[in-house]
């Protein structure tokens, strides 16, 4: 008997967008999209007769989920009679106490939420054992898996963990190699938002919808088929939108209009109106050219779902020449002053730039 | 350094204009628009070119366009000769893309361009730094002095302060610290502070605080919601407990009712069995449930009707037979008739021919009567008689005539002549006449006899002629008649031959026969037509009748079919069977009704329970053993209480549900608030970042200014003091600039310290001028560069001007004064003899 399963994580329903500068409205739209993509996944479970849905943490934001959203999720789950929904809470939706969101809902019989300790869930019907636990705090600095042993080798054994397999962070650092020695048939991971099939036994599905500009590239879910101890998985794109980072390099001969056209061209040539862009404008600009980010943004926002523009240009100041020409006077002293304090510090760099703008503009001409 | 000579090859309005300067004061005078500023700018351009400073790429200033040659523009260039340690010749081409600087030793012509620092941006060597020692901005702010505007003392003081602050150790004064500070202040003001609620920063902060407050509120509400939800969950659990309790009580009550229940069950069972029996019956009669009463009744009615229809049809068939017979007899009659074709009109032709024949007979008779052959015989006899009488007369006349002729011939011999003219008779006559009376009587007698016989012969001849004509005519006619007769005979024969008859009788018989035939034929023909018409009529009738019969038959068949189908449906073989089927149908309906009645009874007994459950309970009842501690009534009471409690709790739960929804709707979503907080935090962060940058700038500039001032102030004090002492005839000789940038002077007369703000405007001018000179002295300690004054003194009164000019004449350096006034020249002539006057 082959079992179809889906593995998702890090949906982050109710996410607040701190790193992308979405306005109020866009934030709401995006939140709705995240929710609807999640419901699309659930529909896909039903349509494809998926037996098992693994949710490896951070399904929602404990701080921001609303009661009506919880109810929507509960109802949707309740209608999925033929799918076992197995959830372990992550660091964003931890089960801190009896007032935590997971505890407030009467989940239907097909939903299983792991307790705070590593526990085995036996799905006899599918001949599958799942080992996992739910987070009960916001940080887990370390965890000992020595006692974790497969109890019944005649079953398909799955380990589901919400943790960090890359860095020794405060979010349950794990070693995929060490865990591989436990000989689970599949390790369903969560926490990292970028999809990554680590080896044939373990994978991060990533967030179904990308959440900020660090999460470029395709996003979706992991689909799998279990045949006894054989587990085959593949990544399946599911996201409605994509984050894309673009860069244009200008030079000091370009006018604002030229810069704007260049920016428009850069975005237009992609022809991806559904994407969310971040456009860096780099290079050296003429001191007299004022790059009006808002105007560029305005033009771009008609073309794509979302576009952020970052002015990363520098004035065409030739510090050495300015110093030479102002040897010994306040301008040279000012540059030296800033250089001594370190231009690696963005604050100092900005102060130097702003200061020069004023000093050289205000020079008695 | 002094500037020796300018050659404006092509620059502004000038073409190949040469201007030579000397050491000391050079007064360049000319009317407005004479080109003073052009020459002034030319000097600057020759040293520095017309480029925007500090750019990473080459850009031209407005002056480039301003002094673009009016003519000969391709040669936009000039030469400047100066004397430093050696004479230096600077040649510069201003023209874009061709621009260049070349420097030579003027005496030897040796090119020394490459010994000057190379500017990689403008891609040229820079002679200015070596020979002037100032950058362009400093040059403009120190040695090149434009029109001194009538500034308020405050402005002047400000500028003085700026200059002091800006003085570096070596070579530039160009940044107005004052303006920088103003600029910073306005930039800072654009962001504002937290305290100023109207500023960007203040507004953002205020909004943020409001949002944080809202968040706190929303968090509280969320906790309330959670509490409500927990309460709701507890209640739902309690409700579940109540339901369980209820089940127990109900079970107990049911047990109580078991006796009653048994009876009920049995009764129900009995009825159930009854119903089942009836249902079986019904099953048997099921076949008749679907039949239609109306159909059967109709079929029965139709069986009666059909005999009548059949009889009608038989009659119809007889009618058809009769018509058919008629037709046959008519046809036979037609067949029996002589069907030889007889040409009508033959009899008539024969009749005409018979008539013709008879006509011919009549004609013959008529012709026979008209001709008499005896006439011709009589006439022939007469003719013979006449012919005999004519011969006698002819002889007598001949004799008399010969006598007469002989007599005449005798006389004629006498009267030949006359005989020639008179006829024979006349001659004879004459002859007779010519012989005396006997003679005439002899002649006369002879002639008379001749005449008489002659005459007689003549008449006879005439009669013969008539007679012979008559005979000819008569014989011709006879011949014609004979021919005609023959013709008629032939025609008659032809007619007879035509019909192959021997004689007219036969022909007449034939005629009669033909007439008979024709009459007979015509009668037959008429009869036949009549018969045929009768046949046609009967045939049409036959078709109509047959159709009618066919229809009747069809109808009969249809009815039979209907009856048969109904019989088939009702499974009956005979018509009587139909009646039976109808009876069974009524039976079915009756049983159905009975079952219905029984079912109502059954339902009344089981009261909404299912019989299976009843049965199950009945069976369970017997096994389960329940201890009963309450009476039935008590239990009933308990049940009622539980039910009430369930209703109440359900109400409370739904109230809680709407309460939760209300609470949730009473605030914005936390995440929405959080988003807004993030947004404002970002804004505030960015603003704070900028503010911090401005703070750093301010602090940096303050520190730098202080250091500069500290290093520089004493030197400046000294230099300015020296100049001011000269300029004020030692009224003021000590200038003090304190670390707070406050300038004051010591009044030598009163020995009091006077703040610069309290000095007269003229003295402030001098202070300002002295400062500028002082600064250049300090910057270029080892260098005396020319001072260029461009219409500086327009606003000065004569007294102030004299003071300044005196000061200038005492300075040991080249001074270029550009002016449009004669005033300076006049005054200078009084002050110094060593002035180079250049008129433009």
How would you sum up this structure, described in words?
The complex is a heterodimer of chains A (365) and B (840). Chain A has nine helices and 16 strands. Chain A has a six-stranded mixed sheet with strand order 4-3-2-1-11-12, with no helix packed on it. In chain A, helix 5 (256-268) runs parallel beside helix 6 and helix 8 (330-341) runs antiparallel to helix 9 (346-361). The longest helix of chain A is centred in the first third of the chain and has 24 residues, at 24-47. Chain A has helices at 24-47, 67-78, 101-104, 176-180, 256-268, 293-301, 319-325, 330-341, 346-361; strands at residues 2-8, 52-56, 84-88, 111-113, 119-123, 128-132, 156-162, 186-190, 196-199, 202-204, 220-227, 230-237, 243-250, 276-285, 306-311, 314-315. By secondary structure, chain A is α/β, with parallel strands linked by helices. The longest helix of chain B is centred in the middle third of the chain and has 66 residues, at 504-569. Chain B is an alpha/beta fold and 840 residues long. Classes of the chains: A alpha/beta (365), B alpha/beta (840).
């Amino acid at each position: 008997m082959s079992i179809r399963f889906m593995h998702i994580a890090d949906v982050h329903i109710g996410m607040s967008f701190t790193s992308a500068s979405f306005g109020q409205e866009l934030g709401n739209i995006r939140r709705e999209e995240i929710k609807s993509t999640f419901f699309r996944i659930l529909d896909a479970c039903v349509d494809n007769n998926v037996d098992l849905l693994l949710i490896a943490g951070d399904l929602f934001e404990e701080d921001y989920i609303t009661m009506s959203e919880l109810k929507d999720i509960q109802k949707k789950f309740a209608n999925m009679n033929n799918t076992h929904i197995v959830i372990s809470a992550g660091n964003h939706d931890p089960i801190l106490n009896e007032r935590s969101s997971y505890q407030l809902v009467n989940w239907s019989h097909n939903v299983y939420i792991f307790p705070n300790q590593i526990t085995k869930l036996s799905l006899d019907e599918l001949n599958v054992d799942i080992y996992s636990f739910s987070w009960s705090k916001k940080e887990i600095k370390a965890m000992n898996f020595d006692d974790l042993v497969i109890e019944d080798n005649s079953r398909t054994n799955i380990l589901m963990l919400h943790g960090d397999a890359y860095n020794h962070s405060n979010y349950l650092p794990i070693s995929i190699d060490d865990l591989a020695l436990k000989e689970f048939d599949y390790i369903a991971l969560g926490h990292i938002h970028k999809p990554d099939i680590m080896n044939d036994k373990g994978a991060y599905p990533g967030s179904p919808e990308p959440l900020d500009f660090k999460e470029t590239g395709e996003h979706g879910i992991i689909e799998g088929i279990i045949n006894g101890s054989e587990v085959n998985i593949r990544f399946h794109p599911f996201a409605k939108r994509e984050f894309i980072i673009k860069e244009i390099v200008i030079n000091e001969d370009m006018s604002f209009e030229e810069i704007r056209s260049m920016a428009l061209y850069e975005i237009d040539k992609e022809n991806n109106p559904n994407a969310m862009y971040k456009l860096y404008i780099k290079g050296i600009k003429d001191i007299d050219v004022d790059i009006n980010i808002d105007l560029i943004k305005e033009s771009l926002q008609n073309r794509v779902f979302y576009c952020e523009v970052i002015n990363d240009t520098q004035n065409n100041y030739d510090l050495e020449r300015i110093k030479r020409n102002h040897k010994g006077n306040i301008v040279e002293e000012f540059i030296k002053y800033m250089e001594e304090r370190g231009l690696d510090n963005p604050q100092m760099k900005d102060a130097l730039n702003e200061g020069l703008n004023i000093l050289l503009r205000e020079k008695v001409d | 350094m002094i500037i020796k000579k300018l050659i404006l090859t092509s620059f502004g309005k000038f073409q190949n204009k040469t201007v030579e300067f000397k050491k000391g004061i050079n007064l360049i005078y000319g009317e407005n628009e004479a080109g003073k500023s052009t020459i002034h700018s030319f000097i600057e351009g020759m040293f520095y070119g017309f480029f925007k400073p500090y750019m990473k790429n080459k850009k031209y200033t407005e002056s480039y366009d301003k002094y673009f040659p009016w003519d000969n523009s391709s040669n936009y260039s000039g030469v400047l000769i100066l004397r430093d340690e050696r004479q230096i010749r600077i040649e510069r081409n201003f023209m874009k893309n061709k621009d260049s600087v070349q420097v030579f030793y003027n005496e030897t012509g040796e090119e020394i361009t490459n010994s000057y620092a190379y500017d990689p941006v403008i891609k040229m060597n820079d002679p200015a730094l070596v020979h002037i020692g100032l950058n362009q901005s400093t040059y403009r702010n120190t040695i090149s002095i434009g029109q001194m505007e009538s500034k308020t003392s405050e402005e002047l003081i400000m500028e003085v302060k700026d200059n002091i602050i800006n003085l570096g150790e070596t070579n530039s004064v160009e940044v107005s610290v004052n303006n920088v500070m103003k600029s910073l202040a306005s930039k800072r003001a654009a962001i504002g502070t937290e305290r100023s609620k109207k500023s960007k920063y203040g507004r953002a902060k205020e909004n943020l605080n409001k949002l944080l407050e809202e968040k706190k509120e929303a968090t509280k509400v969320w906790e309330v919601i959670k509490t409500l939800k927990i309460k709701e969950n507890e209640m739902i659990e309690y409700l579940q407990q109540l339901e369980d309790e209820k089940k127990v009580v109900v079970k107990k009550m049911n047990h109580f009712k078991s006796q009653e229940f048994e009876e009920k069950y049995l009764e129900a069972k009995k009825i159930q069995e009854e119903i089942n029996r009836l249902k079986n019956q019904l099953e048997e009669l099921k076949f008749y449930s679907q039949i239609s009463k109306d159909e059967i009744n109709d079929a029965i009615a139709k069986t009666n009707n059909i005999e009548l229809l059949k009889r009608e049809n038989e009659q119809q068939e007889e009618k058809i037979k009769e018509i058919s017979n008629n037709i046959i007899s008519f046809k036979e009659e037609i067949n029996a008739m002589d069907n030889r074709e007889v040409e009508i009109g033959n009899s008539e032709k024969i009749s005409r021919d018979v008539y013709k024949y008879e006509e011919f007979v009549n004609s013959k008779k008529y012709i026979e009567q008209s001709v008499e052959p005896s006439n011709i015989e009589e006439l022939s006899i007469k003719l013979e008689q006449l012919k005999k009488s004519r011969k006698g007369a002819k002889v007598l006349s001949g004799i008399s005539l010969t006598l007469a002729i002989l007599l005449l011939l005798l006389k004629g011999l006498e009267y030949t002549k006359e005989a020639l003219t008179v006829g024979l008779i006349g001659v004879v006559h004459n002859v007779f006449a010519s012989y005396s009376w006997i003679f005439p009587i002899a002649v006369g007698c002879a002639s008379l006899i001749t005449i008489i016989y002659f005459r007689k012969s003549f008449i006879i001849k005439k009669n013969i002629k008539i007679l012979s004509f008559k005979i000819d005519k008569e014989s011709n006619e006879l011949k014609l008649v004979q021919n005609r007769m023959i013709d008629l005979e032939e025609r008659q024969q032809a007619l007879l031959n035509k019909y192959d008859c021997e004689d007219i009788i036969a022909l007449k018989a034939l005629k009669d026969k033909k007439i008979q035939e024709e009459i007979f034929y015509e009668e037959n023909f008429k009869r036949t037509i009549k018969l045929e018409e009768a046949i046609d009529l009967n045939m049409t009738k036959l078709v109509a009748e047959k159709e009618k019969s066919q229809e009747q038959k069809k109808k009969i068949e249809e009815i039979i079919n209907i009856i048969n189908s109904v019989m088939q449906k009702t499974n009956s073989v005979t018509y009587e069977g139909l009646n039976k089927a109808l009876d069974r149908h009524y039976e079915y309906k009756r049983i159905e009704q009975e079952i219905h009645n029984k079912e109502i009874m059954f339902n009344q007994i089981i009261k909404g329970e299912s019989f299976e459950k009843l049965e199950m309970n009945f069976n369970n009842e017997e096994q389960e053993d329940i201890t009963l501690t309450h009476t039935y009534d008590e239990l009933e009471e308990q049940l009622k209480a539980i039910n009430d409690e369930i209703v109440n709790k359900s109400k409370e739960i739904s109230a809680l549900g709407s309460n939760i929804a209300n609470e949730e709707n009473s605030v914005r979503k936390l995440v929405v608030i959080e988003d807004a907080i993030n947004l404002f935090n970002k804004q505030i962060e960015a603003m704070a970042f900028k503010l911090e940058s401005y703070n750093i700038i301010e602090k940096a500039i303050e520190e730098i200014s202080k250091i500069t001032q500290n290093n520089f102030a004493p030197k400046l004090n000294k230099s300015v003091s020296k100049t001011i002492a000269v300029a004020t005839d030692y009224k003021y000789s000590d200038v003090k600039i304190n670390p707070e940038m406050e300038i004051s002077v010591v009044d030598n007369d009163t020995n009091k310290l006077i703040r610069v703000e309290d000095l007269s405007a003229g003295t402030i001018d001098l202070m300002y001028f002295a400062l500028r000179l002082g600064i250049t002295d300090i910057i270029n300690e080892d260098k005396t560069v020319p001072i260029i004054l461009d219409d500086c003194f327009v606003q000065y009164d004569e007294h102030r001007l004299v003071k300044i000019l005196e000061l200038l004449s005492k300075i040991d350096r080249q001074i270029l004064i550009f002016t449009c006034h004669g005033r300076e020249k006049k005054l200078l002539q009084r002050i110094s003899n060593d002035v180079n006057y250049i008129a433009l």
